[in-house]
Amino acid sequence: PAELTVLRAGGLALDLRTRRVAVEEASVDLTAREFSLLELLMRHPGQVLTRQQMLSHVWGYDYDPGSNVVDVFVRALRRKVGAERIVTVRGMGYRLTG
After folding, report:
1. What DSSP designation does 5 have?
2. Burial 18-49 (b: 16+ CB within 10 A, else e)
């Protein structure tokens, strides 16, 4: 089977080959880290991901887990792809809604 190169979730399309993201068919520019974070969320739709999981996957273990870098990037992503798509699960982390 052909390798999946485009991830889709509720109006979002993320092309792993071209590193392009579309929201409802409109192209959106993301930084490399934003792209990685969105890719992680889109690979686990509906699943709650902890900040620690996000930190280790997107930034590597050399970042301080007490850092708010995940929250800052989630805010930036929400502005670009729509706040309603990324849900905060209090005390847990974040999840992507479909």
Report:
1. -
2. eeebbeeeeebebeeebbbbbbbbbeeeeeeb
Q: 96, 85 in Cβ contact below 8 A?
A: yes
Q: For every residue of 44-91, which 3-state class applies, written as one string?
A: CCCCCEEHHHHHHHHHCCCCCCCCCHHHHHHHHHHHHHCHHHEEEECC
Domains of the chain in start order, with CATH, are 6-96 (1.10.10.10)
User: Which residue is it, tokens 């273990």?
Assistant: 61
pLDDT score, position 2: 63
**Percent of the chain at pLDDT exceeding 70:** 94
The CA–CA distances, whole Å, from 94 to 40, 41, 43, 67, 80 equal: 11, 8, 13, 16, 16
pLDDT tens profile 55-90: 999 998 666 767 899 999 999 999 999 999 999 999
- Entry pTM: 0.91
